[in-house]
Amino acid sequence: MKKLIFILIFIPTIGISQNGPFYFTHNNIQREYYLHIPNNLPANSPIVYVLHGWGGNGYSIMSTSAFNILADQNNFAVCYPTALNGSSGLTEWDVYGLSDLNFLKELNDSLSLTHQLDINKVFATGFSWGGEMCYHIATCQQSNIFAAIAPLGGAMWDFMTINCITTTNIPVFILNGTNDNEFNYNGGYYPGVGYYLPVDSTVSYWKNHNSCSFETTYTLPDINNDNNLTEVRKYKNAITGNQVWLYKVNNGLHEWFDIAPWGSDDFWASEEIWNFFNQINNNTTSISEELNPQKKKLIKITDLLGRETSSKPNTPLIYIYDNNTIERKIIINK
């Protein structure tokens, strides 16, 4: 029996570009990165840096997060750098010193010049160790390149508040699960690294740093009816407009949050993260939440990285139609 499971996301069709890998030399070391530039990207568009977890690489987080889809819809560039091998022999970001901060700065200088990107709309998100690198960026960046961060499944180490003095305000969007088996929601000690803060303490740190006072709280709709609710807290500085958001995923694990069939959550983290970055500038188009009742004709099928393909069972694919909409869809054969 063939069962059809699909998630509808209605967005305009934009051409797909080459993703890499590409290479950039920093400190006489060749560094790898993946880059997605939508076709006909306007000048002064934003760029989002997506940082992988410990032992990962740019390609793995590009596949997991599927930010390329959002980039094509919303006219922004997205870059997936790869960290260097650490003492463990696996890739890990330098969350102690300035080597990777300087690498990201120089890479961004090059990409911004080459692709005429907006230097005031540079954002960073990341998963696990990549999320910790986001905290490191926010506390230690010396030239204030990044306008906002969105760490997912990461922890803020206590030494981050000591090693660097955060001199500027920066919007922060924090996403963590309460059943994360890698980083305890209530804080703890990680062997070989040190102590990390409870998530609520991390939220308070950034709320106070940004002088936020206004608070909004609610829960996301339980779309999969599993009673695992996502609690949302939003804080705002009424004068500067800077915001601090928290998505507390009850019973959420150490994973990139996504909706079925790609995940078991009530939201797609990549979309929520882009919405957070997007509201800082309010200059780009967000994904429509309205269902389009018009008839449509299929014109192309791509995988999650934007590569054209044919329909395949048991494989998540993107179906692009002639009425400027797409569907994230998987056909399950049983």
Q: Layout of SSEs?
A:
Elements: E1 2-9, E2 22-26, E3 29-36, E4 45-51, H1 58-65, H2 67-74, E5 77-81, H3 99-115, E6 117-127, H4 129-140, E7 148-152, H5 160-163, E8 172-177, E9 188-190, E10 194-196, H6 199-209, E11 214-219, E12 230-236, E13 243-249, H7 269-281, E14 298-302, E15 317-321, E16 326-333
Parallel strand pairs: 4-5, 4-6, 6-7, 7-8, 8-13
Antiparallel strand pairs: 1-16, 2-3, 3-5, 9-10, 11-12, 12-13, 14-15, 15-16
Structure description:
There is one protein chain. The protein is an alpha/beta fold and 334 residues long. The protein has one domain (17-289): Alpha/Beta hydrolase fold, catalytic domain (Rossmann fold), CATH 3.40.50.1820. The chain is 22% helix and 30% strand. The strands form three sheets. Strands 2-3-5-4-6-7-8-13-12-11 form a ten-stranded mixed sheet, with helices on both faces. A hairpin with a 6-residue loop joins strand 12 (230-236) and strand 13. It starts with a strand and ends with a strand. Mean pLDDT is 86; it is low at 1-17 and 283-294.
